[in-house]
Amino acid sequence: MGATASQSPANATNGNAGNAGNAGNAGSETNGDEPGDSSAAVLTVAESTEILLQQAGARARDYARAAHAANTRRAYRADWAAFTAWCQARRRDALPAAPETVALYLADRADHCKTSTLQRRLVAIAQAHKAAELESPTTHASVRAVWSGIRRIHGTAQTGKQAAVTADVRAMVATLTDTLPGWRDRALLLLGFAGAFRRGELVALDVADVVSTRDGLVVTVRRGKTDQEGQGRQVGIPYGSRLPTCPVRAIEHWRVAAGITSGPLFRPINRHEQVRSTRLTDQSVALIVKRAAEAAGLDAARYAGHSLRAGLATAAAAAGVSERAIMAQTGHKSVPMVRRYIRDGSLFNENAAADVGL
Hints:
Elements: H1 2-65, H2 70-89, H3 99-109, H4 115-131, H5 141-154, H6 166-174, H7 180-194, H8 199-203, E1 210-213, E2 216-221, E3 233-238, H9 247-258, H10 282-295, H11 306-318, H12 323-330, H13 335-345
Antiparallel strand pairs: 1-2, 2-3
Helix pairs in contact: 2-4, 3-5, 6-10, 7-9, 7-11, 11-12, 11-13
């Protein structure tokens, strides 16, 4: 009994010691877990940071792509593809491209491509190298020398589409039928001409962007070729002097006939004359202009979507409208570009050969 009793304190002591040891071990394990938990937390933060950086990088790439209009990006991709295909066929590196390669490419394509096309391809080559953080070969002296020679021999004059002046637009509109497609096309042609809109601006219009006032329509262009940041501008469309060619009445008639109260202003129409909810493409504008030109007896190959815009500027210049007023309507920011239209429209105004008695 005594022995047993005497062992109890020892056992208790040992047990306490063991418990203490276990407690110490537990404490050690607890202390050991804390760094593990902290590491896990650090990894989680690191992973979250990496995800945020990836998302920011994706947004940065989106913003970089948005620096150029969609049509410009498509043109650059096509031009770069043409250059790389040429290089592959001749076993030359496209990226980075040696100045000699670019010079040979220009010389080889000079007889097959317009000077304006080669100019755009040079820009595409430069952009591709810039994106890859490489020095552009297009600035090398040998490339510049070849390019200067091509410009001198082949010229740089651009042969744009025919301007659809007032008489042309009247003839086009006169061929349209009193149907939904006819009313839509009439509204598109007249508004495109009176507002000197680009085809992309026309198809981007919503009903809310066209407001009727006592003096005519106020059209808000949300974004344009020279307004990539979306500052927007307003264009006034006055009533026409002739009912069949009045853009204000044409727009009102189209909206009522099509039952459009919101959303895209210009829409596709199926073969059952049902108006769709989507918007026309910019290519559709060119097709509508060409179709109307052909119906009017004009050479459809010479007309396209830009003909309406060029036509208003040319007709206004011929009528003696000021340069400032033309630029206000067209939204041009480049005076030389507008003056090209003015020269075309003023060829026979105060012409020196008109009064010499021929």
